[in-house]
Amino acid sequence: MKGLVLAGGHGTRLRPLTFTGNKHMLPVANRPILYYALQNLADAGIHDVAIVLGPIHEGIREAIGDGASFGLNVKYIFQGEPKGLAHAVLCSRKFLESEPFLMHLGDNLLQSGVGQFLSRYETDRPDAVVGATRVAHPEHYGVVELSQGRIVSIEEKPSHPKSHLALIGVYLFTESIHKVIRRLAPSPRGELEITEAIWQLCASGRNVSVLDVQGWWKDTGHPNDLLEANELTLRSLPPASFVNQGSVSAGVTIEGAIGIGPGTIVEPGVHLIGPTLIGSNARIRSGSRIGPYSAIGNLAVVSRGSVRRSIVMDGAFIDSVAIANSLVGRNVEIRASEPTGKEVTLTIGDSSRVAL
Predict the structure, then answer these.
(1) H/E element holding 94?
(2) Which among 85, 257, 339, 351 is placed 20 to 30 Å from 73, CA to CA?
């Protein structure tokens, strides 16, 4: 079994994030999103993995290298112009050879990992296993319609969905998918659609198994999705993830699970509420309140500020501002002349300056 991780832009979905570099490297619970997909594959016992890179792939190879830190053997495949998920598989044909493979979109998070896909394959030996779950707004996803457990239709982002069952961006395929993809014509939006390839498998009589994915799932394509994924991940982390490796002064109030990285200083008079993670060499100054459901990056500084249910990335500086449900980019500076106590919600791209 091989693994295929897609990162770097493979479709035309709009992603209104104003951050430099690759969106797959944005942090959730202080780890890049892409790391979770790689860890899922490693935990499932998959060792040989290819990362398919689209046109925006800055920082991925530098951060992951050969994959040894994950226990993986990682190769890189350049897709070039993004022409759809099925096109990414087509570009990976030489790597995949004739082996079954598990394809994992790099911006998808699954609480229960991908072992359930392998278990279904080992039990039933289908030609494909597709993961699905019920969602409130299926028009944003590939939608599968079932009858007595069998697929009767699949549509990509339909205006009028026939069900609320969305494909989650994790698929297990056998070599039968390659012949189908070679025959695919581009969709009206100019892509080779993986949903159409799956439907063609069904239409040709192949056995496509639909897995009702257990645990929560998030597609992290928008700021609100990132914040929800951050909260869900923090809720799900084991106690061992919350370790104090920094310097916490006397007079700091701590509620719940707090993780603090080495070199970080938390001054007296700070209130920390978990679950919350604070990175390395950060500074939380007196009068600040952090958490719950917050992730503060390395080298960040919060001075007389408040951070609730937010992601604050590396090197950000927050002074006298209370933020909630916010996404703050790298090396951002947010200042107010004096603390107001009123929370604001912000989505701020890297290296921005904001005065309130």
Answers:
(1) helix 93-96
(2) 85
